[in-house]
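re: ur question from earlier - yeah i can do the single chain one, its not a big deal. heres the input i used so u can compare w yours
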Amino acid sequence: MSYSVRLTREALEDLERLEEFLVELASKHGDYDLPVRAVEAIRRELQVIETNPYTCRKAGSNSLERELIIPFGGSGYVALFEIISEHEIAVSAIRHQREDDYH
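and the output i got, formated as tokens:
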């Protein structure tokens, strides 16, 4: 079974915020490929939930709300998503693992 993965407006805004931060970091350290590598890692890992969303850890009491751990460098990112139906998944937030919480 394959799921259609949709990013909410908030998740897209999170990606933009993370990318802006990575661009600043890249310019400080001269690692200009950093933003591209991070976004590619996030996209690659989001493909996991297209076929295996139930392998991700539960996020709270709703068994259909889950978190995907996205390794990158020494830490990584976390994507919060909900299994909407047997065909659709909505990613509602993406954050760096060292951030306090979503939104």
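Helices lie at 9-29, 34-46, 48-51. not sure if urs matches, ping me
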